[in-house]
């Protein structure tokens, strides 16, 4: 009887230790992900959370996607103006395509906001607003219309990032290494191979190049900066209480080529 009781107590203690180890591992796992979430820049983090929640709500049948997609006839004839905004927070239903676009946002959107737009939260938000407005205008062309432009906005971030750090080395599936400036085109080819829609990628490239030309290339060539971040965007970021709005400018190097290199100075000062 004594041996059985001793065996029972030892076995129980071992189970408790094992449970605590499992709980400890789970706590560490959750803690690491929570710290990663806290480290994300504010605009990309908020946008990613909204996109994830929208697709999750559609998957759980809490939201019907047809009420948030962009159809210009419904906007104009039935004044469903919310569609001009809501369509940007939908990356599509849960699928491989959604996963790739979400990872693209988590990788290159974060790198862009932490890198070229470091301490420039208002400027990054203004870039996204300008990109969304550009996509809405381009989407008026029937051949370029797509019912949800979240993937296009993410692809625009990828394009701007590729122009900011053109010489960075990117490995694709561990098989091919290319320069950052070619990454959007490589992703376009991959979407073609996997029969994914190409219109969102093309829209993102067009909007991204328009922004990069007006915000960087044109001012570097002596033109006026016409994309200066409006005061109301700075006030919005200040009211939000997240991120930073200013950093010290860096003087441009006008003797260097500007076709395929990142910006050498910061705008909106």
TrEMBL record:
GO BP: any one term: response to stress
Annotated PROSITE patterns: PROKAR_LIPOPROTEIN
Principal location: endoplasmic reticulum
InterPro entries: DER1, Rhomboid-like_sf
Regions that span the bilayer: 81-103, 124-142, 202-220
Cellular compartments annotated: Endoplasmic reticulum membrane
Entry GO terms, CC: endoplasmic reticulum membrane
Function text: May be involved in the degradation of misfolded endoplasmic reticulum (ER) luminal proteins.
Protein family (similarity comment): Belongs to the derlin family.
Key words of the record: Endoplasmic reticulum, Membrane, Transmembrane, Transmembrane helix
Name of the protein in its database record: Derlin
UniProt topology in membrane: Multi-pass membrane protein
Superkingdom per UniProt: Eukaryota
Natural source organism: Phoenix dactylifera
